[in-house]
Design goal:
about 30% helix, alpha/beta, DHBP synthase, globular, four-stranded parallel beta sheet, 2 domains, eleven-stranded mixed beta sheet
Amino acid sequence: MIRLSASEQDLARAAEMLERGELVALPTETVYGLAANAADPEAVRRIFTAKGRPADHPLIVHLPDIESLAVWARETPESARKLAEAFWPGPLTLILEKNDTVSDVVTGGQDTVGLRVPGHPVALKLLQRLGKGIAAPSANRFGHISPTTADHVIREFEYEGTVAAVIDGGPCEVGVESTIVDCTGPIPRVLRPGMIGIERLTMVLGMKPEMAGEQDGPRASGRLASHYAPDTRLELVDPEALARPDPDAAVLALASTPDPGGFKAWKMLPGDPVNYARGLYAALRELDACGAERILVQRPPGTALWAAVRDRLERAAT
């Protein structure tokens, strides 16, 4: 796997690789994605093979601009247009009815497609250079911890021979995957929470979107019960459980919780959801590598602002 920089020369190389049907990992503001030319079904199939991803689990297509919606979506409802104009480029994916030209390989055989314009300058430059959509789920083994640095991607795939290159764009700013909103019905539904929360969506839409149940709506990325998981067993615990030393356990605690000593490893993240999310996956990867028998994660607050973090941790613990 080649490590590329964000230089114009290296982005040109990455675009050529994608045109040839190769896989290229790229930075987005959420997590690093494993990219293929979304208009090339054979290239897209290579994503599923590299990740070990089920063929019916749809991919998100990243677009260079809002105008590209017309290429991929049969129509753009007013709700989707409002959300795209408010939050793109950014960590929001819209589920829309797909055009007939969109491959079933991308959509997992569904009549809908997930679309977003990423809010990372490197991803946008590559998309604009390529001039077409890129299918790009997280650049990791299916169900494993998502990568937020180029080093994470390299450790995941360096011996596989499936990924041609990774573009090093530095650590991801957001740190968890995009909010997914289904806009195919009269009332938008949140299929996956992200750092664009219900309150912000409601302000733009003029109505409160529904929160979809686990089995509601189209299949979409990151909705399986078990996902985002380290190899080490992860348990969500209350602060009281961290007062009892356990030399076989590694801990991920909130910054306000004191370390009593006696654990295999102790890692703290900030007590606000934005900075916690930014550091979450890197912290889980670090603790996963420390040799502990289990990872104890302090249960995050139950407020709406922490919804995305809770969602990822609850699935990682399943």
